[in-house]
Each structure stands twice: as C-alpha cells, then as structure tokens.
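Example record for the data management plan.
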Amino acid sequence: MQTLDHVQKQTTIVVDRRRFGLVLLAFVAGGAVPIQLITLSFGYAQYLKSAAMGPAAIMTAHEFAKVYVPFIYLPALLILVGIAWYSRRHYPDVFRRIVVGLACGALATIALDFFRQMGVLHEWLPADSTVMFGKMVTGSSNFTTYLPVGVLVHFLNGANFGLFFAFVWGRQRNYKRAVLWATVWALILELGMMTGPPMGPMVGLFGVRHAWPQLFLVTLVAHIAFGIVLGLLVQHFLTDRERGHIFSFLPGGGQDLAASPKEPVVEQMPTTPTVSMQKSAE
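Corresponding structural encoding:
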C-alpha cells in the first residue's frame, strides 16, 4: 500500500509541475509579453532616444515595435492560443481562466473607454491612445491603416490585463471580494500608466504638466470602472473549480489536478470492517 501511495504521490508531483509550467508560460505569453509592447516601445523612444512626446516619439517607438511585434508579440499570442487548445482537454480549469480572463478583460475595456473618451473629447489626455498605439505599431499616418490596429492593440491590452487577473486572483468567495481585488489591480495599472512610459515622461507624474488634475481624475475613474466590471464578470463566469490565487498552481498547491468537469471528484468515506451476509449465514 505504501508503494502504491508513493507512486501516486510522485505522479501527482509530475503532473503538478507540468501544469505549473503551462500556467507560467501562459502567464508570460498572454500577460507579460503583450502588455510590455507599449511600455517597452515608448520606453525605448523616451528614455533611450530622448523623444518625450509628439510624432517624433511615436515614430521612434515604431523603430522598437516593428521588431517586437513580429518576433515577440505575435509569437507569444500564438503560444497562448496553443496553450489554450492543449489545456481545453488536459487542464480545463487553466483553459477557462485563459478564455474567461481574455474575454472579460476585453469587455471591461469598454467601460474604461466610456470615461477615457471624455478625456479625449475635452483634451485632458495628450492623445487618443488608440491613435497613438496604431501609429506606433504600423508606422503609418493613414487613418484606415493605423486606427483598426490601434483599437485592436488597445483591446488586446485590456484582454491581457483580464487574463492576468483571472490567473493571479481567480474566483473569489463572493462578488464583493472579486470587485475589491479587481479594483486593486486596476489601481496598480493606473499607477503604472501615470508614472511610466508613455504617459509619465510625456505629461509628468500623474499628469502635472498637462491638465492637472483632470487628466489624473479621468484616468483614475476609467480604471476603477475597468476594475469593477472586470471583477463582476470574472466572478460570474469562473466556477468554483477556478477558485484560488496564482500560488495554488504551484506543485502541491492544493488544486485538484486530475479532475475535469466530466469527472467530478468524489471524496471516499472511510470504510469500517463489516461482516457479509454470506459469512453470517455460514
């Protein structure tokens, strides 16, 4: 019995590690790599090339993006698609976190854009991010070329932020906690946006050199709206099988690995010695 238990334990550890490696790869390919397209491209332009803002900054950022997109960004997204396809059969909870996270992040971006567009219309923001992203990626000044690409990159960013949240926090005990943690995540994003590239070098910390405090307030409200919607949607669409934070994916982290929705885990009750009817009859 001890030998069988030992073999089962070792098998579980192997599965744990394989699953954790898959989650880590999805986390990087679907979260870190796509999210860094904007910060790395504009960081290259603003910090290394000293092009703080304007068309010069966008075209300098394009020098970095034209290499990053085909050789890192797009391959990472293809890897994420492959992980989702593989996980659908072997690790359904991982698959659901990927799909739900991406979809809910993209939908929550609509809530963010409702407030972001107010900043664009009132010129509180220095530029429309979809225009800026589109020109950065394509290097084109043709509206029909850069705008669709900019919108796609913008919503992919929101989707990747949603995937990040679904993996790190997962389903919570209730909607209140889900909204709380999603809002915390959105505020972290707001902090990064207002201090890092491209916004930080462009308008100063928290927008003090552009339209203070309107710029800061409109982006703050936009990100809070993003967090609230993201938390509600992720909590609604994830199931109890996707409950648990990112550390639960570590080997021995506590999540059931072999179970799938079609094979629920049944806890076996301890058995007690009994005397069969046949034995009694004898």
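Summary line stored alongside the record: Residues 2-256 form one domain.
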